[in-house]
Design a protein that fits this description.
Helix 5 crosses helix 6. 47% of the residues lie in helices and 11% in strands. It is α+β, with helices and mostly antiparallel strands. The chain has ten helices and seven strands. The protein folds into two domains: 177 residues, no CATH class; 79 residues, no CATH class. The longest helix has 21 residues. It has a five-stranded mixed sheet, sandwiched between helices. A two-stranded antiparallel sheet has the order 6-7.
């Protein structure tokens, strides 16, 4: 079974899992790995997602276009569509599912990247004079013509023709395709599909915050989960994550000198962390 076949199977299984739930938007389930907190309260995942996208819609109301590439999750889909429904109708907002195969070996990742490079080289011989981005668009047009329908909503999925080491196999589904974009425009939007940015945020969260480390299963009789640096008061972790989120989006500049907030026109420049930590609102 190829990596793409494995990914297609995972996508189909995700649809089946969502369809089997009483509430298609609810993906929470309590088991040996997840339980209600002993202190405080846990907000339902669907409430959090809807609140998140409603906040995004308010913050980005001045943006000319909004393009959202999201995990394959029925709750995220519902929250995005509810928050941006008017802009979707106005054709100033669009959303895509992106599914990436993550459980694979370095050898398979390298093989996938080499195959993509060979494919791009062959395309360059067919279309001399085109740059790499234009060649990718041509490859994407070809994939668009052989997209397949999956799941209870007959969503159209296609394979992204240029995988990377971090995303060795990738499939994309356009959730808001109303058939009014020309093929060139649609192909360029498909080609931008990636989860790399959000995966990078999660990776840095775990690396920088000891309280966010992955759990360690002990050798005890009940195989209890132990967190070496765990915040046994959940509110402490929540406050730490909130501080890190602000730092990542408003303080931490990339090589180009810009922060994520600057790219969204939410800030004019990087903010010093001290300004955040010692900020005192107006009385």
């Amino acid at each position: 079974m190829t990596q793409v076949d494995r990914l297609a199977m995972e996508i189909a299984e995700t649809y089946e899992d969502a369809e089997s739930r009483a509430d298609v938007e609810a993906s929470e389930s309590k088991n040996s790995d997840m339980a209600l907190p002993s202190h405080g309260m846990q907000v339902r995942e669907s409430y959090t997602m809807h609140g998140h996208f409603q906040l995004l819609a308010a913050m980005l109301q001045g943006a000319e276009k909004v393009r959202v590439y999201m995990d394959q999750d029925s709750g995220i889909r519902a929250a995005f569509l509810a928050a941006f429904v008017d802009r979707i109708k106005e054709r100033t907002a669009d959303g895509w599912y992106v599914s990436v195969l993550k459980e694979t070996t370095i050898h398979d990742k390298e093989a996938a990247v080499k195959l993509a490079r060979d494919r791009l080289k062959a395309e360059a011989e067919t279309h001399p004079g085109l740059d790499q981005d234009e060649l990718l668009v041509e490859l994407m047009k070809r994939e668009m013509r052989c997209a397949t329908r999956v799941g209870q909503y007959d969503d159209l999925w296609l394979e992204h023709p240029m995988p990377s080491m971090s995303e060795p196999a990738k499939k994309v589904c356009w959730l808001t395709d109303l058939g009014d974009y020309d093929e060139e425009h649609a192909a360029r939007l498909y080609s931008k599909a990636s989860l790399h940015a959000v995966d990078r945020f999660f990776m840095q969260t775990r690396r920088r915050l000891s309280m966010a480390e992955r759990s360690i299963i002990t050798a005890s009789k009940d195989r209890r989960v132990w967190h070496g640096h765990s915040a046994y008061r959940p509110e402490n972790l929540a406050m730490t994550l909130e501080t890190f989120r602000v730092f990542y989006n408003y303080c931490k500049a990339s090589d180009d000198g810009r922060t994520p907030a600057m790219r969204l026109d939410l800030a004019k420049g990087p903010i010093q962390l001290e300004e955040v930590l010692y900020f005192q609102g107006k009385a």
